[in-house]
Specification:
Blueprint (H helix, E strand, L loop, with lengths): L9 H6 L2 H10 L4 E7 L11 H7 L4 E5 L19 H9 L3 E5 L25 H9 L4 E4 L9 H15 L4 E5 L17 H10 L3 E5 L9 H13 L3 E6 L8 H14 L3 E4 L10 H22 L5
Parallel strand pairs: 1-2, 1-8, 2-3, 3-4, 4-5, 5-6, 6-7, 7-8
Helix pairs in contact: 3-10, 6-7, 8-9, 9-10
């Protein structure tokens, strides 16, 4: 497949390989939008999944957070066998689908306050879980951490090595953090440094994930721009991620963040799942999409039938 992701239809996504998808993202020159949703949360439309809603507002790629490969749940999805849930999301939306897996360390936490993020065995970044995700139809694995879970950059590197050795030619591997994830020594600018970018890439990451400018204290456009340029020099793509609930801000702010991310040179733009719990504000998905690629490409992505 020799297409920009901007120009792809559902049939293109269904037929593309790992390398096809990476090439299509790169060819779109910073105009690819990845939206995170939580299938286990109550869908804001009731009987339509949050993933479908995100796709309808312009998301190019869907990322499932808190997705347990042992006990998979996507509320409002038509009834299918558990192992078919990801393929069903892909059938209904016509989009590539990724999931988060978490290489977590034990951390002290308030279980009552953080129960929604408590790590289950099916969300851990084990090779068994990665293989299950691939067999379920997942196109991308994102090694990252939810709030307070306790994911260190060192743990991400070691997991990347394992995944790359066993699955690296089959599935896209993305890695990084959008906030400290319970490791206080890795807060602010220490969430990701130049050394981390090098180590992630050397360990097998196809895509390096980093916080979007303006979403974490100390994370500026200039700082992330330098890391994006370095990642590109190593042959990796990048994701700038809005993972600090600012996916639930007003549209004026989300457009400002979008343009700062565009100025960093990033390849993919990520919106998190906590506008309301489970999905970014739909109006922010639309506003972000239009800010990075205009209404023509935004409306085309929204309008194109999944039967094409």
């Amino acid at each position: 497949m020799e297409k920009r992701l901007l120009d792809c239809y559902a049939s293109d996504f269904a037929a593309c390989s790992k390398q096809d998808l990476l090439t299509a993202i790169a060819a779109s020159e910073g105009r690819t939008l990845l939206c995170e949703t939580i299938g286990a949360a109550m869908p804001i439309l009731g009987d339509v999944t949050n993933a479908e809603l995100a796709a309808s507002m312009g998301a190019d790629i869907l990322l499932l957070n808190l997705f347990d490969v042992n006990e998979p749940v996507i509320n409002a999805l038509p009834e299918v066998a558990p192992q078919e849930i990801i393929r069903e999301i892909k059938r209904l939306t016509g989009r590539p689908v990724g999931i988060n897996l978490e290489p977590a360390l034990p951390v002290e936490r308030d279980k009552k306050q953080q129960a929604v993020w408590s790590l289950t065995e099916g969300r851990r970044a084990t090779l068994e879980n990665a293989r299950k995700a691939y067999e379920m139809g997942t196109d991308m694995l994102v090694l990252t951490g939810n709030p307070g879970v306790g994911v260190s950059n060192e743990a991400i590197v070691e997991t990347l090595k394992l995944f790359h050795e066993n699955l690296g030619n089959k599935i896209i591997l993305a890695a990084g953090k959008m906030h400290a994830s319970g490791i206080l020594s890795e807060g602010g600018e220490n969430i990701i440094k130049k050394q981390d970018v090098r180590e992630f890439r050397d360990a097998g990451a196809d895509i390096i994930l980093m916080p979007a400018p303006g979403t974490v204290p100390g994370i500026t456009m200039e700082y992330i721009r330098s890391l994006v340029a370095y990642a590109h020099s190593l042959g990796a793509l990048t994701i700038t991620a809005v993972g600090t609930s600012q996916e639930g801000t007003d549209t004026a702010t989300i457009k400002q963040i979008a343009l700062m991310c565009k100025m960093t040179g990033t390849d993919l733009h990520h919106l998190g799942d906590s506008g309301y719990l489970g999905i970014a504000l739909p109006e922010n998905i639309l506003a972000y999409s239009a800010a990075i690629r205009g209404v023509r490409h935004t409306y085309r992505r929204m309008a194109a039938s999944i039967n094409r």
